[in-house]
Amino acid sequence: MTALRKTTLALTPEAAPFAIRAEKASDVAAREALLDACFGANRHARTCQRLRDGRAPAEGLSLLAVSQGRLVGTVRLWHVSAGGIPALMLGPLAVEASSRQLGVGAALMDHALAAAKARGHRAVILLGDAPYYARFGFSAAKTGELSLPGAFERDRLLGLEFCEGALDGARGMIVPTGARLPKTRAVRARKAKALLLPRVA
């Protein structure tokens, strides 16, 4: 019997199972299909979607994970006011089911947070599972007095400060402050989403 030999593989960018890059206009259909697969067709009714509808994501903070030319993950950040305090809202973070063991979600988070910090943003808020996002520094320590425009679970509203004290005194409603999409773009986006929804006979 031949003994199995352990080898260590150094993942260079060429050998890596996926790469992180900025989102492009041509990625819209693939991104929407991935989001539908991850969250279901009713994802547009979710509370946080109200902070994104008709708004552009924060500049430079729409990232994708691509494997062999195929989109396998996505994350975006959006400008909001957290009870009068400027912040970013992260989401949705989505990873294709077959790629979830590759560390795609963590890589997208690391890249997105590093990019947000480099651009001078002071804080990020999200709605998600505390045990997962705690590894990136998120907690509910300063979000207890904040609200969202719809139903949400209090312990899932989490915040991360890049600058100490950035969320001090944050209370009240989280509202969108990002640039509004031109009407034609917003209508086109809604039509694209409609085309991607499964047809029911």
Automatic annotation (TrEMBL):
InterPro entries: Acyl_CoA_acyltransferase, Bact_Acetyltransf, GNAT_dom. This is GCN5 family acetyltransferase. Keywords: Acyltransferase, Transferase. It comes from the Bacteria. GO terms for molecular function: acyltransferase activity, transferring groups other than amino-acyl groups. PANTHER family: ACETYLTRANSFERASE (PTHR43877:SF1), AMINOALKYLPHOSPHONATE N-ACETYLTRANSFERASE-RELATED-RELATED (PTHR43877). Gene3D superfamilies: 3.40.630.30. Pfam families: Acetyltransf_9. Residues 18-159 form the N-acetyltransferase domain. It comes from Bradyrhizobium icense. The keyword Transferase applies. PROSITE patterns: GNAT (PS51186). The keyword Transmembrane helix does not apply.
